[in-house]
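Two entries, shown back to back:
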Amino acid sequence: MAKHNLLGVRGEEAAARFLMFRDYSILEQNWRVGHLEVDIIAQKRGLLIFVEVKTLADTNVILPEEHVDEEKREHLIKAAEAYLKIKNLDQQVRFDIISVTGSEPPYEIRHIENAFEVPPTFVGR
């Protein structure tokens, strides 16, 4: 596995542990449908949370969460809509970003809840 891929996997594992430690239930990791993927799908207090995890070895140039551009947000929203449809779910959702910084533990982890708004056209509303 390439070094940057291994860093991403470790970052996603650290993010999942971070959420579990804070009483989130992890429902899915690396959930895929077609070309769409969600890093983590979690639940807490009846809220379904779709999480994008961004991992960087350092933040000298840009913060990890700044890598979640409009195109990535649209893909995450489409993946969430597909998940709700496939699982036949009708519940409130939230989109979060977790940024993981560092090449090895202990990582610096930032959890950005409600990282972006659910669009009015979102199917799961």
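entry 2 starts here
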Amino acid sequence: MAWNVLNGCSQGLLGPLHVLEEKVEIIRPDGQATAACTEPEVVKMRAGDRMFGMMPLSFATYPAIALRYSSVDVAQLKTSLEKALKAVPLMAGRLRSTQDGFEAVLTGEGVPFSIVRCSEKTAPEFVEESKLPDFGNYCRPPAVRAGREPLMTVKLTMFQDGSSILAFCRSHMLFDGTSAWTFLSFWASLARGEATSAPCSNRDKISQLVPDEETVQALAQKEIGKTLSASWLKAMVGQVLVPALAPIADTLFLHARLGLNRHRVYFSDDELAAIKEEATPTEVKPGQDKWVTTQEAFCAYLLMTLGKHILPPDAKGKVQMMFLLDARKALGLPSNQLMGGGLTFTSVMVEDLKLLTLPEIASRLHEGLAKKEGSLESQKARWQLLNGACEKKLEHSLMQEFHYKRDVDMKLAVNNSSKRPLLDFGTGPAESVVSDAGPSLLLPAKEGGLYLYLDPQVFSSAKCSSKEKRSQALEALRTDLPKKGTKRKVDS
């Protein structure tokens, strides 16, 4: 029996959709009937944005966000998208390669808006992650970079009872996760007829934040303990091997659904509150806080519960907890700044996991995020280091240092999107949402709480190949939940 069935989650549709009709309309910025005839405006892409568009689809290079609705107003979706594109014309353009990178050309060629009508009675309660290619129009990254495919697509799949799945895909070179949700929220507000200010699409300040090579090397020495140097092997992997294998990987993603296999687990608001209550420390060292955030408590619970079941008996329990943090505040940028790479990869190391209580793990994550690795100062330094390294084509060496810590017994990476809105395009909020953004992803639930999409890489990082142990660990995420108001000592 599948894990999703055990937790009462919809399995979605089985097999391909029976399509009755499909139409594609090109949506252009409001007032623009055709693509630009005169010389269009050009926006030069930073090397730091380029990095997010060079990998295969399974690395969220052209990710999807799919939302379920009981009903939609198709005409309003289209007209409001025209208005949104007028305010953000970048997404209606195309990419073009240059001698030293890429640039976005504001051609106004538009966004393909597909409307599919199928014979199935009702939309699935949840779109299973493996079904995303059925509902979203993914474009292969090499074709996007060459300007042959659009920077963004929209697909509306409509069912017999009027319910639908609205799927939005976009190039990560233009929009990171925050940008995607910002744009969607702006589009939704226009669909509701609300007056709202457009997101910030000017990128001048972002470019000014990218440091020179001397500063990059100084930051590298501080952040990773050594300067960066070019490696012919890593360069060959990034510039030759990955592009050569990408078409195969993309085909496997689209047709065999390779990489779309995360485990979905639901946690209610009450369960999250109980986890936070139990994870809040009562005794701390001088200078430490006696509080933790819900995110820190939840991630501590994941580490403790998974570690108990999948770490080898002889493992010391050294684990790497990685967070994807939005660096806009640290960089002094507006919260609605549109950009391709506004995130930082922040790792907090936890030693001797097996010997720690839940409050001790949560406290270590909190101190690291609040005052050390995740502080605003550190976020800015890491963003500048990564983006400066990209300018010198040293990002492959740097990413190895960020992601692959030596002698780690388990690694868990989390992208927390649980506070994103269930968007309302004028006919009511979405009833569910799924995305292939990663690695492990937290998404909001209509009934409150969140859904965890757990990346199987956490098991392979712990060298856990046993299906039985993996299943036990997943079950334990539900069975080991604490009860609110009954704070207990966690067994080590």
